[in-house]
Structures are given as structure tokens and as C-alpha cells.
Amino acid sequence: MEKKFEELYKQYLSGQISQMDFELLKNKVPLTSDEELWDLMCDDLSTSSESVKMSSESQQRILQNIYANVKEEKRQTRVRRFLRYAAMFVLMLSLVGGSYWWINSLAPSAPVYTYVSVKAGSKRTITLPDGTRVTLNGNSQLCYNVVPQKHREVVLTKGEAFFDVTKDASCPFRVKVNDMQIEVLGTEFNVRYHEDAIETALFSGAVRLTSEALKEDYRLYPGKKSIYKLASHQLKICDNDATTDARWKEGYLAFNSKALAEVLHEIEDWYGVRIQLRNKKLANDLLTGTFYNESLESVLSSLKMQYKFNYHTDNGTIIIE
């Protein structure tokens, strides 16, 4: 396999490819054998820290639609072209951070859902079929339809995500989180879904918040944030916190009057580790602070100095005494 093609593929897979190099990658795909494509894609999918997964039923539906596009080809070339289109399908599906322009022509009769999972300690930016960019924080998962249709809807099943939504006045963009729906036309906002609440911080545009559990709809405007309590189904609107909201995208691990137990949970997601707090007296102590691109050891040492605790590692778990 040409080394340049493999380098372009890996750049695209990591979301670090330029538009010029992306065009070059597309031009090189038809010049690469199906066997080489398949081997490269399988290798990268098996070693990737993030995953795009799809049910076998959905895979079969897409492949059937790919086949429908080439069924009028002459019979002697049909199988060869089907393999080529199938290889292109797997290639573009594996390129999580890329464009899904190619799949518009498939027009399946039913939605084809997939999801992106980002493991703790990682971050990932993907581009949805409509051009909307979504950056996922560690330990997050997003579900969406890979084939553009008349409506745009994604589901944040866990974690935190920043949305930069492509504007389309005729087709609102909706994010479903638990029993809440966030509807926008074109805007930038951050959604954090944790065990007891959903926080939506708006930076531009406007969003509408709805839920069957709420007595009324709510609208957010730039600089405002909503906090929706899952247990009580109560929603309040306040100002964005410039010191913490969406700062994770810039490499900041920031807290403002947050209980230490919650802080440790965020540290777990940030660094991909497990932490056990045995000193329960510290669990509800409120912490305010900011760490910027610091190592796990540096963060733990700072907390140790403040709280005077000791910690050690036991079978991969950090134990705080």
C-alpha cells in the first residue's frame, strides 16, 4: 500500500486532515485495491480508542442500498463495483471525524442509527451528515442517524458534548437527553448530562427546552444556562459560568464550588482512571480551582496539599484515605 495513502487515512481518522489532503485522499481511494482498503480499515477500527458501532440490521440495510445503486451496471462488472462501494462505505464509516456527503444518494426507507463512544481520558470531534460539528468529552456517547433526512436529531446518552450546529431554518436540530429535548436552528451550546442533572450552556443563537415533565417550554439566549434536575423535574435558568462552562474544550479542568466527590468523578473521566474516596468526610467539601493541561499526578498532588489526605494505587484504582 502507498505510504502516503496510509498517512492521509490516519490523519483523517484523527480529525487532523486539511481540506486539500482530504480531496487527495478521496482521489486515491479508487486507486487502492479492495484488499488493501479492507486490511487498513480493519486494523484501525480494532485499535481505535473511540468507536462507531452499528447494529447488524442497520449495516445490512445500508449495504442493500449500496447494492441498489449499482444493480443496473452490466452483470460482469456488478460484483467488482459492489465491493468497491462496500469498501468506500466501511472507509467513510470508520472516519468518525469526517464528512458523510457520500451517503446522501443511498436514501434508505428507514433511518440508520449509529453511535460514537469516547472512552474516559479522551476527546473526539465528529462532523454529522448536515455539517454540524460535535466535540465529545471523555466517557461520552452520542447516537445519530448517519443518513440525512427531513429532520435532524441526535441523542446524548451520557457524558458531555459541545455542539456547533449548521443553520437550516427549514429543519431544526434537536438534541435528546433523557426526557428533555433541546431544539435549535443554528447555534453553539454545551450539554452536560450527569447522574442527577442536565446542564445546557448557550454561547450563540437560541434554543428551546421542552419535556413532558415540564409545565412550560423554556428558551435560552446567549450567556444563559439551564440546569434541569432529573429527580424533581425542576428547571432553573442562570448565567453561564465563564470559568467552567465548556472550558474542557480548551484543555481546562475547572470547578466552581463543586463537591469533591463530583470533582473526583470528573477527574476519572478526564484521565481515564478509577478513584475511590474512602475518607467520606471530604466528599461534600466544595472545591474551586482550575487545572490546565496538567498531569494526573500534578492534580492529585495539589488536592493532597489542600485536603491533607494520602493516596495510593491498588490494582489500578487510586485509593484516597
Descriptive terms for the model:
7 helices, globular, Jelly Rolls, alpha+beta, 321 residues, three-stranded mixed beta sheet, 3 domains, 34% strand, 14-stranded mixed beta sheet, Phage tail protein beta-alpha-beta fold
Structure description:
The chain has 321 residues and is of the alpha+beta class. The protein has 3 domains: 1-95, no CATH class; 97-243, Jelly Rolls (Sandwich); 251-320, 3-Layer(bab) Sandwich (Phage tail protein beta-alpha-beta fold), CATH 3.55.50.30. Helices cover 29% and strands 34% of the residues. The chain has helices at residues 3-13, 19-28, 34-47, 56-70, 75-94, 260-271, 296-307, and strands at 50-53, 113-118, 124-127, 133-136, 140-145, 152-164, 173-177, 180-184, 188-194, 197-204, 207-211, 218-220, 224-229, 234-239, 252-259, 274-277, 286-292, 311-314, 317-320. Strands 1, 2, 3, 4, 5, 6, 7, 8, 9, 10, 11, 12, 13 and 14 form a 14-stranded mixed beta sheet that branches. Strands 16-19-18 form a 3-stranded mixed beta sheet. Strands 15-17 form a two-stranded antiparallel sheet. Strand 3 (124-127) and strand 4 form a beta hairpin. The model is unreliable at 45-52, 69-87 and 90-108 (pLDDT under 50). The chain crosses the membrane at residues 82-103. Residues 116-208 form the FecR protein domain. This is FecR family protein. InterPro entries: FecR, FecR_C, Ferrdict_sens_TM. Pfam families: FecR, FecR_C.
